[in-house]
Design goal:
Its main location: secreted. Pfam families: DPBB_1 (PF03330), Expansin_C (PF01357). Helix content is about 10%, strand content about 40%. The protein is mainly beta and about 200 residues long. The protein has two domains: about 5-90, Beta Barrel (Barwin-like endoglucanases); about 100-195, Immunoglobulin-like, CATH 2.60.40.760. Mean pLDDT is about 80; it is low at about 1-20.
């Protein structure tokens, strides 16, 4: 039986795997070869261009921390220096150790256009839909408006008119259909490049 190291690390994967199957950040459990007893849970955040990533259907470019976590005690540097390894992997639920969902506002956002990276969705966290609602206003800005997935974990809304904060964001899970509400998570005076943390997450 594998001894799982319940720590979250980061990596990137082949674009074939990232875009054809899981086009948003996801978690995998990885171990070296067939006989290793150690595995590591890795959050895949992006695809890696060129080299083996361009030609292999499943190729993971891991951080040094994630690479070393698959090694026996005292052998971390030796494993990191080994280069390309044969591995086994399986997709697993993400575990962010009690973090709540956060929204990192894209630098290109402005009063008429809002985009954000949605981070730290635990467990049942693949999103089928994201909606945004403005603060109630005289021009009817109190309805939920569907956002579009731009790429990966980035969701956007081209409002076409000024948005009235605070902004609430509603998330719908792809698999269970569970809905979470991050009420007023984007405050009055929000800034591009800032990160705003909600009070909710999937179990």
């Amino acid at each position: 039986m594998m001894r799982v190291l319940w720590v979250w690390k980061f990596g990137v994967t082949a674009s074939i795997l990232f875009y054809d199957y899981w086009d948003r950040p996801f978690s995998v459990q990885i171990r070296q070869g067939m006989r290793s007893l150690l595995s590591v849970r890795v959050v895949i955040t992006d695809f890696c261009p060129g080299g083996p990533c361009a030609s292999e259907p499943a190729h993971f470019d891991l951080s040094g921390t994630a690479f070393g976590a698959m090694a026996s005690p005292g052998q971390q540097e030796k494993l990191r220096d080994a280069g390309v390894l044969q591995i086994q992997f399986a997709r697993v639920a993400c575990d962010y150790s009690g973090k709540t969902i956060a929204f990192h506002v894209d630098q290109g956002s402005n009063s008429n256009y809002f985009a954000a990276v949605i981070e730290f969705e635990e467990g049942d966290g693949d999103l089928a839909g994201v909606e945004l609602k403005e603060a109630s206003s005289s021009d009817g800005g109190d309805e939920w408006r569907a956002m579009q997935q731009s790429w990966g974990a980035v969701w956007k809304l081209d409002a076409g008119s000024e948005l009235h904060p605070p902004l609430s964001i509603r998330l719908t899970s792809q698999y269970s259909g569970q809905t979470l509400l991050a009420k007023d998570v984007i405050p009055v005076g929000w800034k591009p490049g800032a990160t705003y943390r909600s009070l909710v997450n999937y179990l």
